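Encode chain A's predicted structure.
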Amino acid sequence: MNQLNNLINRVESVKDQLIDHPLYTGISSIEDLHIFMETHVYAVWDFMSLLKSLQQHLTCVKSPWIPASSPQVARFINEIVLGEESDMDADGHVQSHFEMYLDAMEQIQANTQDIKSFTNLIQQNSSVDQALIQTKVNEVAQAFVAFTFSIIETGQPHKIAAAFTFGREDLIPDMFIGIVKHLSSEEQLQCDKLIYYLERHIEMDGDEHGPLSLQMVEELCGDDANKWAEATEVAVQAMQTRINLWNGIAGLISKKNSSVKA
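Encoded structure for chain A:
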């Protein structure tokens, strides 16, 4: 527990930068929200890739089946997979959170064609890099996805879990509360599906997934000082990469607003 507390303390200042990021209050129009979602959707997608990578490493997803090396960790990750890949939307339909996000984008008439073209290319066995280039994904999203897959490609569960937990799961409740409050206060933004998606994340990640993910990191690092050092480094990098994403989206919004005024 001391090692986990040390890691949490190490990333606290970086986390504070995300909680108070000016991007949240900078989203003040439907056009701003389009820019946000059309870039952020790639982070929603590659979150699922992090999750499935952990499932591959920490559970048995092939036949013939063999027991997981740690049933405790396998349970953690399977519970998270259930919630993220097969949740209930506001209408009681089973959907992944990625699909909920696409529905939320369509409700506000944001562009979903690019992300759908991207995932179609992935389905046709294009590499992630090829699909990003072919669909001309903006550099902000490309950099974020590239970092995610650089961690996945290490094949080291404690690093992947650190990126997942501190760059995503443990961060999402605080990070999204600000967005939900801001959107709720703007009457002209009709985006109840997005608000449901964000509130669902706050509920699940704060009450269930965040604590489970912290336990997963602790279990995977154990008493190995080197693993704790590597997990800490990845956690800081993951959170800084999220800051870069937010900075990049804020820059895109600012650029759009400047061109409108001109």
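Residues 151 and 196 are 30 Å apart (CA to CA).
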